[in-house]
Amino acid sequence: MELTLFINLFVGNIFLSTGFSKCFNLIVFEEAMTQFTNFRNPKFIWFISRAVVVMEISCGGLLICSIFYKVAAILLMVLLAIFSVLIVFHLNKKTNLTCHCGGALGNEAIHIGIPVRNLILIIGLLFAIIAPEIPFILQLWFEIEHLKIWLLTELLVLCLLVTYYFSLKLNALTRG
After folding, report:
1. Which spans in the chain are helix H?
2. Which residue of 74, 75, 124, 169 sits 20 to 30 Å from the alpha carbon of 81, by its own alpha carbon?
3. Cα–Cα separations (whole angstroms), residue 34 to 47, 143, 162
4. pLDDT tens-digit series, residues 101-153
């Protein structure tokens, strides 16, 4: 249960941070979507970019609360796979683009590490899907031991994500 909870909290917090970060820079994300997909219809890009943001925030929240988390995990795996294919496509074309992942994942030039990171997240989500069920957050309020585990795991996840984010920023500063 603890590993599934860790994965759900880890991936859920990642997608909450990326979704909210895109909310504050929606125009920039729309431009990135235009570059990545080569779609030129502004209404379609408007719809897709908002759908991605809503999916990231809602699925991230569902993973954190452990409510319908298997459905949320499947949707996020599809989203990660689509973006990974687009990134690999642009890497093969040697296109100079910024990922605009946002949140804890940062905004950096695309490189092979991004699809690898996405693959690791997909494997984690796949594990969360096939692992035994975990209680959802409202059930935890009545079982103090499970609530303690949830809170400690959430704190650990947030510390890891903040460390990862700052290591990305430090790497960007040292590169130039």
Report:
1. 2-24, 26-37, 42-65, 69-92, 113-130, 137-140, 144-175
2. 169
3. 12, 48, 29
4. 777 677 777 888 889 989 999 998 998 888 877 666 656 666 777 777 777 88
Which two tokens mark 19?
A: 């979704």
Phi, psi (5° rounding) for residue 47? -65, -50
Buried b (16+ CB within 10 A) or exposed e, 142-165: eeeebeebbeebbeebeeebeeee
To 10 degrees, the CA torsion angle through 151, 156, 160, 165?
30
pLDDT in tens, 3-48: 888 888 888 888 988 898 888 888 888 888 888 888 888 899 999 9
Rg (CA), the chain: 17
Which tokens go with 159?
């510390």
Block residue for tokens 């991230």: 60
**Residue at token pair 């990862």:** 164
How many CB atoms are closer than 10 A to CB 114?
19
Q: Residue 101: which of 173, 166, 165 has the closest Cα?
A: 165
Q: Which two tokens stand for residue 135?
A: 């209680």
The residue among 85, 86, 84, 55 whose CA lies nearest residue 72 is 55
Instruction: Give the separation between CA 104 and CA 13, rounded to whole angstroms.
Output: 8
